[in-house]
Design brief:
eight-stranded antiparallel beta sheet, alpha+beta, about 160 residues, 4 helices
Length: about 160
C-alpha cells in the first residue's frame, strides 16, 4: 500500500475514534454525604435542565452521580461539594442570577478566557458549576441563571451571598 494511501486511511480511521471519545460520558465524582444531603442532591440532580447555554445534557458516570454535564467541552454541575477554601462570607462577593448568589474566585473572575467554577456557597448542600473558558462570558451567566430554580427549590439557604 503506498504511503500516501496509508496515511489517508489512518486519518480517516482516527477522526471517528476521536469524535467518539469526545462525545462519551463525563465522569463526576460523588462525595460522601449524610442521608439528608444525599436526598437533597438527588432531587436537585433530577431537576437539572435538559440543556444549559444551548448545550445538550450528556451521560455521566457513574449513572447515579450527583450532578450533570452539558456540551463538549463539558459544563459540569456537581452537588455536595465543599465550600471553596477561599470563600469568606464576610468579604466575598458573588454573582447573583435569579436571586441565587454564586461565588467565583477573584482570579477566575478577572480572566475572561479561563475556565471558571461558580459555587452556590450560601446553600447546603453546596452546588458548583464548572464552565470551560470557551463558553465565557455568556455561558457562565446562562448556566447560573438556568440552575437557580433547582438550587432554590431543592437546597437550603443558610447565608445569602451577594
Amino acid at each position: 500500500m503506498p504511503a500516501r494511501l496509508a496515511a489517508r486511511l489512518a486519518a480517516l480511521l482516527t477522526v471517528p475514534f476521536l469524535a467518539a471519545c469526545s462525545a462519551g460520558s463525563v465522569e463526576i465524582s460523588t462525595p460522601d454525604l449524610d442521608d439528608a444531603a444525599r436526598a437533597a442532591c438527588e432531587a436537585f440532580t433530577a431537576d437539572l435542565p435538559e440543556s444549559i447555554y444551548d448545550e445538550a445534557r450528556r451521560e455521566v458516570e457513574p449513572a447515579d452521580a450527583l450532578g450533570g454535564a452539558y456540551g463538549d467541552p463539558a459544563i459540569v454541575v456537581r452537588c455536595g461539594v465543599p465550600v471553596p477554601a477561599d470563600f469568606d462570607e464576610a468579604v466575598s462577593s458573588c454573582e447573583v442570577a435569579n436571586d441565587v448568589g454564586w461565588y467565583v474566585s477573584p482570579a477566575e473572575f478577572d480572566d475572561q478566557e479561563a475556565d471558571v467554577t461558580l459555587t452556590a456557597a450560601g446553600y447546603r448542600p453546596v452546588v458548583e458549576v464548572s464552565v470551560p473558558g470557551s463558553y465565557r462570558p455568556n455561558g457562565t451567566a446562562a448556566a447560573i441563571a438556568q440552575l437557580a430554580a433547582a438550587v432554590d427549590e431543592h437546597l437550603t439557604l443558610v447565608e445569602n451571598c451577594d
